[in-house]
Amino acid sequence: MLPPFALERPDRLDEALGLLDDVSVPYCGGTELLMAMKMNVLRPRCLVDLKGIAELGRLDWDGDDVLVGGAVTHARLATDDDVLSGSALLASVERRVGNARVRSQGSIGGNLCFAEPRSDIATLLCAMEASVTLQSQTDSREVAMRDFLIGAYETVREPGELLVNVLIPKVRRYRGVYLKYQYSERPTVGVALVHDEAEGPWRLAVGAVGEIPLVLEADSPSGFDPHAVAESIDLVEDLSGSVEYKRHIVEVYVRRAMQLAIQGDSL
Amino acid sequence: MSVTSLEIACTVNGNSITQAIDVRTTLAHWLREDLALTGTKVSCDVQICGACTVLVAGEPVSACTYLAVDVDGKAVTTIEGLARDGELHPLQRAFVEKMALQCGFCTPGFIMMAKALLDSTPQPSREEILEHLDGNLCRCTGYAPIVAAVEQAARVLQGIKAGENG
After folding, report:
1. Beta partners for residue B10, in sequence order
2. Are the beta carbons of B35 and A17 closer than 8 angstroms?
3. What are residue A6's DSSP bridge partners?
4. Which of A112, A1, A84, A79 lies closest to B58 in space, CA to CA?
């Protein structure tokens, strides 16, 4: 049995936004929130269930861009035909998030808002220059993923705001690789190396080893120095390894990602 | 209106149930304590080990970290729902024949995960089986017999399907 709370099940977005505050929190898949409640890390008075709000389940394509509703599950992003054909890279990363149960329950919005430092999808979305829309009763703002995450389990989202969608511009044109080393339920390191095949730089994002992903740009996939990247990144020692170990594994995985991208072995 | 208890209507292993449930109740707790379906096990209690896996609307979920009220309007399948007329499901039979269990505590979760896979991917590759079962833990078997059991069950189920169609 979980700690005491009440449940709200709005079916309209404006209704949900009117309910959110410091103690009434968004609830969707529960894969992060319910665990935190079990551990008494979070004690919300009310869970606002978002699963009945149709527009949060949208998956809209507009040319090369895709708009993903905050309640869309990882499983849907991993298996949706349009995602598979539009961005094999995005689908392949989603297919390896957590485990099959987490993917069927967990939502992209919940994943990003919980800001677990070892989120695969946050690392990829930082590299792809995605943004999120935060909406409150009175306002709406678009925030770049790189500005959205400000620390471990910490984002710029205010208590009255809801992450209503994720915009991934030009996702059809992105090619790249995502590599991770993972021996338990979350990665030790995740490295995304992507570029817009029509224009622009290559972007490298290194996640899971520190509080938020490190993002760097270069003109070509060979334009990064794996050793320098490993030396410059802020690392956090935890159960996945020491700072020394993480520095080593960052260098190895950045080099491997570069090799794959250079030889054209990318999605 | 916020509520602390909800009346839900769902099916569990094909049986219709309408019941008022405290919103704090996890699906695992409800299945085990209220419905006496103790085949669903709770081990890690934080959705890592997979022992509590059941199917909700055909999707595998961790019943330990899933609100029971969220099965409202849906079909739940637990390990008790697999056997038919006293005959074990091909997955259950394969786990026995391949000796894919020892203590057996993780087995219901593995079988329900495997069922989710075979329902959507009737002929999975070995790699797909390994990938799908990656989030389930077994401390007895070393996993190889479990993978062999899923492969065998897939072949048996394909044979049954071919027989039905032929």
Report:
1. B17
2. no
3. A46
4. A79
Contacts 24+ apart (CB under 8 A), B37-40: B37/B12, B37/B13, B37/B78, B37/B80, B39/B78, B39/B79, B39/B80, B39/B108, B40/B78, B40/B79, B40/B108, B40/B109
Q: Are B46 and A35 inside 8 Å of each other by CB?
A: yes
Segment B80-112, tens digit of pLDDT: 999 999 999 999 999 999 999 999 999 999 999
Element (H, E) at A68: strand A65-69
Angstrom distance (rounded) from CA A203 to CA A51: 34
Tell me which residue in B1, B24, B134 faces A5 most closely, judged by beta carbons.
B24
* Residue contact A8–B65, C-beta within 8 A: no
Mutate to test the interface with B, among A1, A7, A40, A101 (most CBs of B within 10 A): A101
Please check whether residue A75 is in contact with residue A104, taking contact to mean a CB–CB distance below 8 angstroms: yes
0.90 surpassed by pTM = yes
Q: Is B77 on the interface with A (CB under 8 A)?
A: no
In Å, how far is A224's CA from the nearest CA of chain B? 31
Contact assignment for A102 to B47 by CB distance below 8 Å: yes
pLDDT tens-digit readout, B39-52: 999 999 999 999 99
Over residues A205-227, the pLDDT tens digits come to: 999 999 999 999 999 999 999 99
- Residues of chain A contacting residue B29, judged by C-beta atoms under 8 Å apart: 1
- 3-class SS of residue B3: strand
- Any residues with CB less than 8 A from the CB of A158 and at least 6 apart, and which? A134, A136
Measured distance CA(B24)–CA(A1) in Å, rounded: 6
- How crowded is residue A87: how many other Cβ atoms within 10 Å of its Cβ? 26
| Tens-digit pLDDT profile for residues A25-47 | 999 999 999 999 999 999 999 99
Work out the minimum CA distance from B160 to partner chain A, whole angstroms: 26
CA A68 – CA B155 distance, rounded (Å): 38
Round to whole Å and give the CA distance between A64 and B3. Answer: 43
* d(C-alpha A61, C-alpha B114), whole Å: 33
Q: Which domains does chain B have, with CATH numbers?
A: 5-81 (3.10.20.30), 90-165 (1.10.150.120)
